[in-house]
Amino acid sequence: MASVSYGLNRGTGFDMQPDEITVGTLAVSTNDIELRWDNTKHLTHKDIILACESFIRRLEDGRFNDPINV
After folding, report:
1. First-to-last CA distance in the chain?
2. Contact 35, 6 (CB under 8 A)
3. Cβ atoms of residues 36 and 43 within 8 Å
4. CA 66 from centroid of its chain's CA atoms
5. At a CB cut-off of 8 Å and minimum separation 6, what does 27 contact?
6. pLDDT category of residue 51 using cuts at 50, 70 and 90
7. Within 1-70, where are the H helices?
8. Residue 49: inside a domain
9. Is residue 42 part of a domain?
10. Number of domains in the chain
11. How far is it, in rounded angstroms, from Cα 23 to Cα 31?
12. What is the model's pTM?
């Protein structure tokens, strides 16, 4: 398995519980939101958590003119 993906659909729950996350190995899923990483890069749990926290900071920061309206 070269990559692992975690997917979640918007509106699946008020607080989007971890049990509602779909786990797969496809590069593209049918979920509304997807997180995927390459297992061949030997990332640690900490590496992935730090990256996710960086994404959250980016989304919460109002300075960026992102192409999507979130």
Report:
1. 32
2. yes
3. no
4. 17
5. 3, 5, 36
6. very high
7. 45-60
8. yes
9. yes
10. 1
11. 11
12. 0.71
Whether residue 44 lies inside any domain: the answer is yes
Tokens of 66: 């992102």
Q: How far is 63 from 11, CA to CA, in rounded Å?
A: 27
pLDDT digits (tens, 9 = 90+) for 2-48: 888 888 887 765 566 777 888 887 655 678 888 888 989 999 999 99
For 49, the domain range is 3-60
Beta strands in the chain (DSSP E): 3-8, 22-24, 33-38
Check residue 67 and give left, alpha or beta (phi > 0: left; psi -120 to 50: alpha). alpha
The alpha carbon of residue 43 and the mean position of all alpha carbons in its chain are separated, in whole angstroms, by 15
Residues 9, 33 contacting (CB under 8 angstroms) = yes
Whole-angstrom distance, CA of residue 29 vs CA of residue 41 = 21
Residue 67 lies in a domain: no
